[in-house]
Amino acid sequence: MPAETETTGLELRDYIRILRRRGWLIAAATLVVIAAALVASFLQTPVYRGTAELLLQPRITESLFNPNTGQQNDPNRNVQTEIQVLESQPVREAVRKKLGTAPAVSAHPVGQTDVVEVNALSTDPKQASEIANAYATEYINFRRSQNVSDSLAASKQIQDQISGLDAQIKAIDSQIAAAPSAGRDTVATNLGPQRDSLIQQKGVFQQQLNQLSVNASLNSGGAQLVTSASVPTSPVTPRPKRTGALAAIIGLIFGTGLAFLFEYLDDSIKSKEDVDRIVPDAPVLGLVPAVAAWRDKETPVVVSIEEPTSAAAEAYRTLRTSIQFMGLERPLKTLQITSPAASEGKTTTLANLAVALARAGQRVIVVCCDLRRPRIHEFFGVSNTLGFTSVLLGEIPLSGALQKVPGETRVVVLASGPPPPNPSELLSSRRTVEVFTALQNECDLVLIDCPPVLPVTDAAVLSNRVDATLLVATAGSTTRKQLGRAVELLRQVDAPLIGTVLNGVGAEGGYGYGYGYGYGYGTYTEREPSKSQKRRLARR
Length: 540
Fold this sequence. Notes:
Elements: H1 12-21, H2 23-43, E1 48-56, H3 75-86, H4 89-99, E2 106-109, E3 115-122, H5 125-178, H6 184-218, E4 223-227, H7 240-265, H8 272-278, E5 284-289, H9 303-306, H10 311-329, E6 334-338, H11 346-359, E7 364-368, H12 376-380, H13 388-392, H14 398-401, E8 403-405, E9 408-414, H15 423-427, H16 430-440, E10 445-449, H17 458-462, E11 468-474, H18 480-492, E12 497-505, H19 531-539
Helix pairs in contact: 2-7, 4-5, 5-6, 10-11
């Protein structure tokens, strides 16, 4: 039956666990983004902004001869139109003549008012203010010149109307003067109303002309300078504090994204839940926290001996209890311990489990069947000159190959012995079964150290010769694919897989290991089993 590999949806605690586990990545990404932003900010040339304010007013001359006079125009449209005029080519040319240069400026209304801000940017603070003021003043001059031109054009039109009326009045006066004396009064009476009307029209036009002259002298061109641009004292860019704050936010977002990306790409097992998803029908019997001494993989460490009050030692005692309870349900005399790949901690698990079982009163024989890379003898400080292969080849009797462990009277080691050229064939021989049977008569439990499942077939071969198989994985090292494939291979040969052990579990996935198991122990010593306990163990 293939191992279950599908994963369920992530819960809130899973996201929190990911953020805690990848916190170093988020912090590093945030610091890198902040550092890059600050370096770029300090290397950037300071840019200053000069700001002038204009008040826009409607042009008075637009009311003359306008059939739409009195109608309400769109104020926002009028302001946007004047902004386009301010940024137009004629105004830029006037600024260029005044300053010798005409950099682009930006203008925008202030809220819902008729006030417009004119902004100019420059690396020179004085030049920034000069450019803003130049655009503001040249725009006013441009509008004023337009107003003068409009006023002159309107004045000319009104003056032409007045001149026409004068000509008509003069023609009537000439017609009255040319009439005979006897009929002159009659002619004057007949043409008098027409002449009076023309004079009245002339008066109206003359009044408009006078008003236009007054307006032209008072009109500012439709705009006036409210606030001239002063020389700025601080640059608008760069601003290191603001840049650093924005970079921190961006860095956090970027780092969090990286954390979830790495989590998605990382196929390694990290918690008990990961193991349960892949091997749902085999319980996790042990969760062993990481031990600092394990970083040096070349130096074997048995924490159950060297640090009996540590959290790791307590985890091995928990594993021991789980295996003992399983032995109550079915006979358990030979236990095979293996792993999906190398360096997963199978030999370390076996050595510590052997010590935990022995200190609980059980007699344990440790057999090294890892004939390719034997290490169990290093953990217990015994010789590997003679051992399991020596017994199989008949070079030495079984009793002569067994070695006692110094300081652990209930632990006996059968080292691997000289490496054979054909480990798989040797382990599958009938002689191996005979050796295991003989060992079962000498102890309560035989612990067998086997090679990893994936690289070689040795563990699969031995699985049919043992009562139970324990699969060891390491958090952050063993991948889901490796664990799933190892379980699949063991299922194919009907291996008696009773459970798994997860090494290197952090505080977040250790279910309490972060609290420490040293509480209340003082100097740890295993108590000698009582007589009743010894009788129960003997019956098993």
